[in-house]
Design brief:
alpha+beta, 6 strands, 3-stranded mixed β-sheet, 66% helix
Length: 240
């Protein structure tokens, strides 16, 4: 009786196990089919198209980056140029302002130059017998103070001495003088001093230029002597 019950249980269990195995196999087959459907075999032509499209996009991006780089370089070059132009403008403006300041100072002191010229001419014509007087020394001291005041403002006397080369940018010729002691074309006489301020010409120096002396007419003198001798011989013959 017990054996019969055991066989009955075994018989009932075997179909159930077979059903479970069949169900598992069906599930595995379905999963395998789904997996196969989800991962189909590779398509060479489709992959090549995708790769070519990606390469085109990369090339477009590289060209765009190159254009942006060139544009940024151009902007940087223009910025450097503008910066250099602005620095040059500031330097030129400062130089022009300094030049205007020097010119205004020179114009304000221009009457002093005329006074110095008058004092210089007066001392040149002063007799030696009066040079030892105290009041003359006082006037000379005033002239020295005026010249020092001009030097403090940057105003200097233009170099112009007899024998010095003539400079048309700083010297103004007022005539010529025959001279053997000075080279022809050089300065022979300084008529009036000139002044400048840090390269700015305030007044040119008035000078006379040296030239070679004109040779004496030796031949004409000989002709005159010959004529005189002939006249003397004629008069002697007439007296005889």
């Amino acid at each position: 009786m017990a054996d019969d019950q055991l066989d009955s249980v075994v018989n009932e269990t075997e179909p159930a196990a077979e059903d479970a195995t069949a169900s598992t196999a069906s599930t595995a087959s379905t999963a395998s089919t789904a997996s196969t459907a989800a991962t189909p075999e590779g398509n060479p032509s489709g992959d090549a198209e995708r790769i070519a499209e990606l390469e085109r996009k990369v090339a477009d991006l590289e060209r765009q980056v190159e254009r942006e780089r060139d544009q940024a370089t151009d902007y940087m070059r223009h910025w450097h140029t503008a910066q250099a132009d602005f620095a040059n403008y500031k330097r030129r403006a400062q130089q022009e302002q300094e030049q205007r300041d020097r010119l205004l100072a020179a114009q304000a002191l221009a009457p002093t130059l005329n006074a110095l010229d008058s004092l210089e001419r007066a001392f040149t014509a002063l007799p030696t017998t009066l040079r030892s007087f105290t009041w003359i020394e006082g006037i000379a001291l005033v002239e020295l103070q005026l010249r020092r005041a001009l030097e403090l403002q940057g105003i200097r006397v233009i170099e112009a001495e007899p024998g010095q080369a003539f400079d048309p940018t700083r010297h103004e010729p007022i005539g010529e003088v025959e001279s053997d002691a000075v080279t022809e074309g050089a300065i022979a006489v300084v008529a009036q001093r000139g002044y400048e301020s840090q390269g700015l010409l305030i007044r040119p120096a008035l000078v006379q230029i040296a030239r070679k002396p004109t040779p004496a007419p030796v031949q004409e003198a000989s002709a005159v002597n010959t004529d005189d001798a002939a006249d003397g011989a004629t008069e002697t013959k007439a007296r005889t």
